[in-house]
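new request in #modeling-help
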Amino acid sequence: MSATAAIPVRERAGAARRDPRALVLIGVTVATILLVGLVDHGFMSLQNLRFMVLNCVVLSLLALGQTLVIATRGIDLSVAPVLGLSAMVTGLMAQTGGLPLLGAFGLALAIGVILGTLNGLLVAKLAIPPIITTLGTYSLYSGLIFLYSDGTQVTSVPAAYAALGNGTVLGIVPIPVLVLGAVLAAIWFVIGHSRFGRAILAIGNNQAASYNAGIPVTATQVGAYAVCGVLAALAGLMFVSYTGSATVTTGTGDHMELQSIAVALIGGTAISGGRGPVIGSVLGALFLSVVLTALVFVHVPPIWYSAGEGLMILIAVTAGSRRTA
Amino acid sequence: MNDVAPALRNEVTARRGRTRRLPLGNWERALLALLLLLTAGLIAGVPGFYPGFAGFLALTENFLPFGFVALGLTTVILTGGIDLSVGAIAGLAAIVMASLWSGLHVSIWLSALIGLLAGGLLGLVNGLIITRLRTEPLIATLATSFIYGSVGVAIAGDNPPSGFPDAFNRVGTGAIGWLPVQIVLFAILAVLFSLLIGRSTFGRRVVMIGYNTDAARYSGVRVRQVLTLSYVISGTMAALAGIVLAAYYSAVRPDMGDLLLLSTITTVVLGGVSIFGGEGSIVGVVIAVLLLGMLRQGMLIAGFSDMVTTMLTGAILLGAIAVKNLFAGRGTGLSTLLGRFRRSGTAPAE
């Protein structure tokens, strides 16, 4: 692949090998594990390591979608209610209607495509700024969760779902990690090695120039939001499978939308678009999961967790701007 | 009318004359018409919405805290920035006030003043992070909202103070005659902000920075100072909202500002302020505060759930901006790009 001269692709995504941020994140994550592990050996136990990896799967999926959208110089606040709606719909149908797992995947896919495409159309066709669009659809989709659930909530899921959320292959590799790995590989390929991915980065760099260069701006934008919606819906299915529960405030209650943006930023995504470090986003989610678990192990009260998250965002972003400056 | 000779009445003076008679743009006029229609419709169609004049005015106490935040946030959005930390600041300032009052037995009024100053200080931190560390406002205030939120929870502890003196609670629920204190406060601040944004040098600079930061810098505007000050204003107004909410409930909670953020951004944008900055008026925002507030109260009284109301708010936001874009084709910052698309023959809408 080569970036054409007309489109100044600052940094090729997928070139994580040459992106120092990914190495830094890996280094800091390993250092944290070793450091806290020396204080408390329980931290380095296989069980805890697995917990930390499992814990970051849902957020990683959200952050991957968010990364794609931010790469187009957009933003998607509605990932949280999309996650919540997908968790609620698939969970409730599995709980009361015995929806097979394959059906749940199809349902999540449909929810993600429809809601994501709506976001994309509003942004690309009506020229509503992304932050306003997704703020509006955030309210709309949250309302849909409320209307659909009608006061009920998911309290348990069938065995097949529990296996998807908690099972392992050959007793070693957790299934959610496999799912995340497959998605990561797909997104990494798309953004680094496909026409669609290159169009995303080009639009994020310079929308007008991309348009003049013949890149289908509207279709690419809609596509990016649709993929983001699908990943958020998949995250919802993984969430309900992993925890076995979903309520009206799932996703929106923990401000998953802000968390996913935070993780993408920690991973090296530039809010000004044109960069899509997908591996960094997953590493960012893993780092966050490790640090938050480490805070538990060194007995920091839970109230300070979000402050730690805020500090990490500031450090990640200011460190990034220094380097590029 | 004017005693200007016809020959001298060029376009500019003509426009000035019009402005003097009706200081409202098309957008504000449309909003005002919508507000009047909505209020009339709610009074006629929803039993219990108009329980006498005083009771009707008292309805505003439920949503005017949003208005305080909206006034401050407008200043920031006009510069082209955004402040995601207003909710956290509102909660933290109210908790600072309540803790000083209950823990150190400071007078509630002095505590409230310190709470306001704390809000300004938190805004200052935002402003400094944005201007000195050159961080995007979205990121900086996202990060500080996490941090302020944590600090608020930490100070509040398990049992946040409540049961403030009655004299203080009157700020939230009291009335001067039939006029609620909140309305008086909001009216005074709305006029002040209107003058600040529309008539003062500072306001000119705020709008100029939002319209074109580079041009503002080259014309000698101290961009960093103005930006920082706008975040201080936003923080102070968020703190005021938190304190008024505390007086309204006679209690504080660290998460009591959470609801403020998304609704307030909706209000400001619906009020005609461009999210990219450089365009908008306080009058529009004030009308939007009343419009969304009345709608919410009306729907709640009519028995719709909070969630349905939120959905409707979202739909109105999207619809309003879509209509504005389609008919005006301006003011979104994408206008040049849109114009290019239109000329190239791409349909602007589907």
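bot summary: Residues 1-21, 330-336, 342-350 of chain B have pLDDT under 50 and may be disordered.
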